[in-house]
Amino acid sequence: MASVTSSSLTHGFARSARASATKSTSSESSLRAAIPSASAAAPSAAPSSSSSTTRLAHTPVEIGPTQLNRLSEHYNRTLSPLLLYMTYDPQNLTPSSDEALRAKDLEHGGVTSTASRGWDPASPYTQHRPQRPPRGNRRLAPAQKPPSAYDASEDLPRIERLHFSVFVKDAVSNKQLLVPVIAQLRAITGARVLGSLADKGINLEHPGGKGYIRVVKSSTRAASFRVRPGMPVGVTAVLPAPVALEVIDQLSTFVLPRVRTFSGYALPPASAPARSPAAQSGVVSLGLTPEAMRLWPGTEVNWDAYSGKGLGAQIDIVTNLRGPHATEKARLLLSGLGIPFLRRGDIRT
């Protein structure tokens, strides 16, 4: 009796399982019929395999600044109002001598006066003739940007870029001597080498880049030094304004205060011509001795790893100023950023 009851229960469970399986199969078929398949909705799409995974597009990752630049904040908050007051020149509001001559010519009906040498490219006389040089023996002054009539902060001196150059005279005969110099500039500036196989993504036109390092090659020939055009003679690092401020911060904080024989960069004498190209270029050049090169934070830790220890450097800081007193205003900007300048009579040897 017990065996009969157990067998009947087993057959009952089997029948109920088959009935539930039939119901689930019918529900799945009805669900497939109600929802259109992906192939019917998009016949052109290729069937995806079960093993394929979704891949995101490759996006280059660049590490940005993790903190604000100290000198940049100092310039925006403290130095710029002082420079606006100290660099104000009322003579910029008056027209220059060339503009006065052009206005005088227009008053005479376009006839060129004796002091100004006009040159009309549309005239038959000027065709196939080179333009006449300016009258007199004075050098041509760079074009000066007129002062802004709406925003006075546009006329403030700013740093555009910085050139950190190291020249190796023995590289003419042995190009391998430039390798430790390149490594030294990479440790100081953090820039990448232009033209290397590992750094092909350097964007020279991007203003927010970190700059680049390139090998300087000679452009002229000097037989006495056995130099031909195209021979490597040094290495230079070109840094944009944000990175240039970091280098100037390291120079004024860690390097120059620890040089024993350094008291400040010499200012030009009072007898220096104010109309010279150097006084109107807006470029300030600073020299570094071999003693100062070992005091940079990036190279001081492992200074023994660099072989070129007897080399100095030259730093050229390019500003946005051009015209009269441009370099003087650029030195005023660097003095506010911590670079010391002294008169020649005050320098102690």
Strand order of the largest sheet: 2-3-4-1-7-6
- Derived from helix and strand composition plus strand pairing, the structural class reads alpha/beta
Strand content: 5-15%
- Architecture of the domain at 157-346, CATH level 2? 2-Layer Sandwich
Task: Spell the H/E element sequence.
Answer: HHHHEHEEEHEHEHHEHE
Q: Profile the largest sheet.
A: 6 strands, mixed
Domain Large ribosomal subunit protein uL5 C-terminal: 232-341
GO molecular function, one term: structural constituent of ribosome
Biased composition (Basic residues): 129-138
GO cellular component, one term: ribosome
Written description of the protein model:
The chain has 349 residues and is α/β, with parallel strands linked by helices. The protein has a domain at 157-346: 50s Ribosomal Protein L5, Chain: A. It has helices spanning 2-34, 38-41, 70-86, 97-107, 178-189, 241-255, 277-280, 290-293, 297-300, 326-336, and strands at residues 159-167, 192-193, 212-217, 232-240, 265-266, 283-288, 313-319, 341-342. The longest helix is centred in the N-terminal third of the chain and has 33 residues, at 2-34. The radius of gyration is 36 Å and the shape is globular. The relative contact order is 0.12. Residues 1-58, 107-154 are annotated as: Disordered. InterPro entries: Ribosomal_uL5, Ribosomal_uL5_C, Ribosomal_uL5_dom_sf. It comes from Ceraceosorus guamensis. Belongs to the universal ribosomal protein uL5 family.
